[in-house]
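Table S2 (text version). Query chain:
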Amino acid sequence: MPRTSEITVQPPLGPLLLRADEQGMTEVRFVRNPCRRGKASALLRTAQEQIRASFAGTRRTFSLPLHIRGTAFERAVWRALARVPYGTVVTYGELAREIGKPRAMRAVGTALRKNPLAILLPCHRVIPSRGGTGRYAGGAWRKAWLIAHEKQCVQRREKQGK
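Corresponding structure-token output:
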């Protein structure tokens, strides 16, 4: 069994648990109580820096190795999810079409619910076609905040001409 390490980062939305093994990031999720076990690996320190930069609006993508487990369908959804640009949203139906399963909107939602890497795999960027934010494991208020934050960062950058 691979050795794992974990740390907690404190973004504006509450504590995020970061967990990794020798192969890459295995988990990022919001937690109620921050914890820190043992010494953080270099990968976790890099992940912590990148997540902080993302919340500061200075980073739009992550360059971290990922080690995720899931079904072939879930991995296809998560790969497509990783391609959704920062500051934009897509619908569950659009994501289903992206993976070649246009009628699998509910299954896409189920795969997103199982996303082990919140923020890194941006499931907060997927919304219902009828509008609103839909569900989010971290809470609907966090999803709304993340969508608005990314949109503001993009608009600010466009105004600065960057």
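Notes on Table S2: Residues 74 and 111 are 5 Å apart (CA to CA). The beta strands are 4-9, 16-21, 24-30, 90-91, 126-127.
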